[in-house]
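User: Structure tokens for both sequences below?

Assistant:
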Amino acid sequence: MAILNRSLLSAAAALCIAQFASAQTLPAVSVTGKATETAPGLAGFSDPPAKLPMQAVNLSAERLSDLGITQLAGITRLDASVSDSYNATGYWSTLKVRGFELDNRFNLRRDGLPISGETSLSLANKAAVEVLKGSSGMQAGTSAPAGLVNFVVKRPVADDATTLTVGAIQGGTVQASIDHSQRFGTSREFGLRINADTARLDPQLRNTEGHAHTLAVATDWRVQPGTLLEAEVEFNRQSQPSQQGFSLLGNRLPDARQVDPRLNLNNQPWSLPVVFDNTHASLRVQQQLGSDWRAQATLGIQRLRTDDRLAYAYGCTAADGTYYADRFCPDGTYDLYDFRSENEHRDTTALDVFASGPVQIAGQRHDLTVGGLVSQFKSRFQRQAYNYAGTGKVDGSAVTAPQPDLTDENTNRDERSRELYLRDRVTLSADTTAWLGLRYTRLHRESVRTDGSRATDYSQGVTTPWVALSHAIAADWLVYASWGQGVESEVAPNRSRYVNAGQALPALKSRQTEIGLKTGTQRVEGSLTAFDIRRPTWRDIGSCDVAESCERRIDGNAHHRGIEASADLKWSGGGLSASAMRLKARREGSADSTLNGLTPPNVPQTTVKAQVRQDLLPGLQAHVGLQFEGHRYATPDNSIRVPAWTVVDAGLRYLQTLGNQTWVWRAGIDNLTNRRAWRESPWQFEHSYLYPLAPRTFRTSLEVRL
């Protein structure tokens, strides 16, 4: 391990000769466009990625298919800066970027518009998944620091095409899909794209049988030269029991080699599936304004309905009366709760309007984008069950009686946001460019318990700037420096224990400084980046055990510093995509000196991800993937360390031409050596959880392009 850690920086220097995130834009039947092309909706600028003073990764549908990735959580295999953050089978995906957890309420986008990630988001009709790494205040009103995730929806393409896919995964999962794109009209001015996907879910993890279905329709109308009207709608449903995590056994980390990774502790006779019913739709108008300027307006809606249910393990009471609040008992028992929150509704509506084009100011060219975003989020819940149901056992043998009574209140929330933004690229010289971004956000948030208690209501205005300077030091080399802010907003809970109950807290402004070196050619793309992120931290100060005994306030910072390197090398018949990150994440400036210097739980210090591909025979290509994640901590006090792990994947891809058809055969083995380790150690709801690596898994698929 020490040798690997010491060699990482030298490896990072070597990797700077290439660009991260090799990916290709996937139309229906062919791969076109330059790798890692990012959309203006995510990065905010339409320049080629190698010319942008920021770090972003584009993961195409083709690349995800080659690796058998069907859920957002799967992208943690592909970029060193992205890691797991409570990713349980059957539940929604949560990611960390540069050590910070992305907020599923505010850090996800769909074609550039805000959506809620508190659901299972289908990839069946997505052309790519994009990840922006770094300060997101220029692109989002409020969001957790370190990045955004954007889903790019498949749209009609120029050539008519149909793709049929069938696949199977060890355990019993089978999947089938169709992707059809066609143009109509005398001038082919109308476009239609249909994506349909159905799957019977039966992974190797026991007690998680379910199903998932997606139907999506996208249309466009080229009304006249310079005018494009686009509309799309997507329906998806997933019903599958979720996975209950393991935990610490007293003060001991259980040996992952002795834990069956197929065992699911959510295995009570009364365990029910988590059900996600989702509807997404958007309408977009693009209009050319003269020869240089263009305008765009996009309206998007998201309607989510969820039945969230779990046989939930939380803490334990030992035989001697000792209560372990954040882990299981030393003998492997735990308190088991019947959790049911059914008929949850989360609705998001957003309208984004902007215009962009060049202007000359003081003899310099400015490429401006000026726009506004209005969004509204509403969540509605009913009372929930959260009832003690007995004692569970870590071997999964305990059986308890259900306790489904709706005894616990939930919280309804409303949020309205109005944002004005400006982006400017200033050409200072042939080789030097200044980049500016500014966003003003006006928030209004309300919350109330389902019984009408603990109401809160507040408004807040925040401004988030971003500036960067880039310089071309050679034809294909760019050096840059950037500084930006992000912001988060919260209210103190309206509970009697707080002296500031129900009051809006000062906006938390995170700050990121980044310097980088990038290059991009047809064969070699890469980057080397150093970043420094400071994020203020809220904490409850006081005993918090009686009325007015504590205060929620800012108490120090989370300080994350790191270096990233990424490479995309292409050679005749193959290539290498690799990334590495070395991260120092620490708590600083707390009034409680015992907290300072601690590393946040579930954040690996060192990560390396790599994919090598090589042609073996005409049409036959092999690929081998490697994931290394260094040690992490299971608890905030850093008392228990979780060992590092390395996983190797392998696969084959065979391209076969039969007449006018192209058949793509894929086969792969994930976790080739059947490595046993704790994949992640999320700290959720003041409790330590452990999720094991999935066992060795075989998968295969056939894609027919008609």
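Moving on to the next sequence.
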Amino acid sequence: MAELRRVGDHHAATALARLLTGADRRTPVVVVSVPAGRAEPFIDAARIVDEVGDLARVYLLTTGPHTWTFSREMPELTQVYGGAGRVYPVGHEWVADPHRSPLRLAFNRAEGDRATEDLISDALRMATDAGLLRRTPTPAKRPVHGVVAGIPVPERAMVSVGRSLATVAEELTVPGVPLDRVLRVGLTVQGVLDDRTGRLDLIGSLLDPAAQLAAYALGEVVLAEVHQVEAGRARLRLHPRVTVEVSRAAVTSNDLDDLRSLMSPGEVVRARVTGLGPDWRLSLLDVDDDEVARPAPALLPDGPPWLVETEPGWLAEPASAEPEPAPQMPELLQPVAEPGLLVQPVAEPEVPVDTSEPVVPESTGPPRPTPLLLDRRRERGGSAPPVPPPAAETTNGAGPAVATLTRTVDGLKAELAQQRRVVAGLQEQLQGLVSERGLLEHVRDQQARDLARLEHELRTSRSRLRREVGRRGAAAPAPDVPEFADPEQGFRYAVLTAWARRTPPAEQASRPLGVYTLGPDFLTSLQKVDGISADKVADVVFEIVTGRARDLPGRELHQLRESDAGGAPSVRRADGAVCWRASLQVKSPQARRLHYWQLPGGEIELSRVTLHDDFQP
């Protein structure tokens, strides 16, 4: 059964450090420290045990000299002390990269609550990465069906199971993908319910990515998420479990472009499929703004698409938030309380603070930070001023006992006055620190808003720049394009070029270009209808002749009807040919269309390029 393990001496601290850095650990480990002067941490260690105790070990590092022992035994920048907490994942990558094991700070109750949530999330995510969900069966886990009742936050969803509610955690489903891209309200799901924690595990219901992506076709435009970006390459995700590496040449025609200036991690982009799985290949170069991308696959049966394309970044503005006024700090402008006046104590009771410094062993290296450095309540400065000497003995005729009592009373009065001055100074210092903290929190919040705005502007600029680079690359004429005296030969060359460019050499034998002819009005219409390039038309003709257009939603392929009436017959010629209509453009005024005839033997005859409202074959 899960339990909270306390570390309270040098032996236990050494054993914990060796467990974390050793090779035998198979589960994440949560370490929560206690700030100096407190018996318990602000972080709720007991709640962490309840939430993740079956997937991770939880340790409580109490205050004392053994915190130094733990710090000395741990690698640099991976220690925990002063009320902070940290989760150590399985493996040792966190030693070289401490960001894999983020430190969660907590200096008060509010920060403790937030740190508790962060540590639970870290532990669940690391347990999922370690594959522990399938290796911890217990009698309390049972298969159930339920209906998604709500997704109150992106990281948590509520599922109605019978008369009770179960919780679905993002970290235990598809880490890094918000649950509103995995679930939707009203969706029926099935999974394994842990009756002890109330968690519903949906991993077993996730769809196979290979089967989901099998519907993608060569030449199709699909959605992908930017996962990582380097100067000369990027990694795009077609699925949370399928990552495709693209080179600079697949994004821009300029060999000097830095991809980090063209795309951002987390951005959803459109890419053309140039190679099918398992060795996927993608290109962002020749994707037009008006092409429709195939919807991204769902991760659960009947679930929502895991990626959704947004409007261009410069059209989607971030939510505006008026800056909050800075907190007023009248306390800093008030005069210091006069000596002798009693200052009211702080309402919150203070816990006595142990200010004794631990004995630090001598070391030839640089001094290590003391665990007390994170304790903001540690007393600063030196000791209180000495009590003034008692007044001189009076000779008013009183006896020795009265004189002694008088001296004692005078000394106590002087000491009381001094203590009142000390309390007044501390009270003023406390008020100043409280006000300073309020100001710092305001500055922090304002900086967070500014950072969000700047990140939005950066993504907007990168998206706009990438689109402009793509347009320039598509519009720039190739230096070695031949010129033809015969327009038909020139167009056929463009179609052949599109076939060679978009068909990998290994597949060209099994995917030949096919036979097609040009109708008597085709080249005339191509020159007459403006707003569409001949290369774009050649690309679509290549898709039609090779049969790929049938699998591309953006082509909107359908037979031309004799009228708009439902069930109207297809337009046919006397030789039995059927007229088809394909989209050259979408989402644009008078979008261009291509009409062509499919002959009884399967041969394609290109009829003409026309506008959206022109239905003449």
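User: Anything stand out in the second?

Assistant: Residues 27 and 56 are 6 Å apart (CA to CA).
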